Amino acid sequence: MLNPSWRRVVLKVGSALIAPENDGCSEKYLRPIAEFIRQCRMQGLEVILVSSGSVAAGRHHFNFSHQRVPIALKRAMAAVGQNEMMNFWSRCFEFPCAQVLLTHGDLSDRVRHVNARNTFQRLLDHGVLPIVNENDTIATEELKVGDNDNLAAMVATVTSADALIICSDVQGLYTADPNKDPKATLIPEVRQIDQRIYQLAGGASSSVGTGGMRTKIEAAEKAAAQGIDTLICDGHQAVTFQCLLAGTNPGTIFYGQAKPLSAKKHWVRHTLRAKGEIWVDDGCIDALCRNGASLLSSGIVQVKGEFESGDAVIIRCKAGKRSIAKGGSRFSANELFSIKGQQSRDFSHCLGYCPTGSDAVIHRSEMMLLEKL
Ligand code: GLU
Known about the structure:
Elements lengths: L7 E6 L1 H4 L8 H16 L3 E6 L2 H5 L12 H22 L4 E6 L1 H5 L1 H16 L3 E6 L13 H11 L4 E6 L20 E2 L4 H7 L11 H13 L3 E6 L3 H9 L5 E3 L8 H9 L2 E7 L1 H9 L9 E6 L6 E6 L5 E6 L4 H7 L7 H5 L15 E3 L4
Parallel strand pairs: 1-2, 1-5, 2-4, 3-4, 5-7, 6-8, 9-11
Antiparallel strand pairs: 7-8, 9-10, 11-12, 12-13
Bound molecules: glutamic acid.
């Protein structure tokens, strides 16, 4: 295998490989991928498959020819296509497969997150291949991850995988768009994901799936923060899988960070969605960024959005322009309206009751800096 220290990998297969013609599942690319999964398992590697394509696979059952499909119809297509796709994968293997359907809401809820983690572990312990997709039939826009690249990165972090392999219809990340620039070359390794890397990604490109190179970089960034390597490779080419098994790199590898974030900070930074904003003064920004302080109410100048205690919020500078940090607020937006700018000794006077717990609005252990001063 490309890296012999990998023990558990998440393999993401895009819609363009599952149903390349938008006309049901096709064996063309799936057979070599299934063979690769079998080989990995024979080498002692645990594999979790994230399979896109329920909408693309189900589409041919509906008499609808427009490119843009209304959401209710998409949900129905996903329901049929998911079943076809699972049947297809199950027929490829002699070992059992399990269907795991998730939404962003499942992964950002602490209890469901732990349940998912435990279920994956049990499935792998018993030699079952977990096959994951977003629960497209019921997911609402707010509760969706939206693309399976990011979903696969979340699955990789939930399952503490060593690597995320994204099988796409491109070979990897190029120095420029290879369709437009003949001088574009493949970048084999990325050690740091920064704005320059995002600029190389451009916009979405595939006409079948949801993601493009950008969502793949986002996924690699999420995975890297947890110390997980991400490989982007071309799933159309059988040679890709031969390379991987022979230990050579067929695409672009993004290395996981040597010092991963704690699981809690990773969850706050990459899984929780912010429900509101807290704007703070300059002294407060200094305390957060330079002194490693917790957020106290005295530095708060403005509160935006409706959130409850425990929800994630973004801390911004007082003009609202820069995002400084993200974290879980111990107070609701309503409570913060009353105590903003106040000292903690005045809380009971402002609120009419005495809040329990510490004085911090966001404790340092539940805060991630987004910007360094
Ligand atoms: N979950 C979607 C599906 O199965 C795919 C999302 C994506 O293409 O990333 O159709």
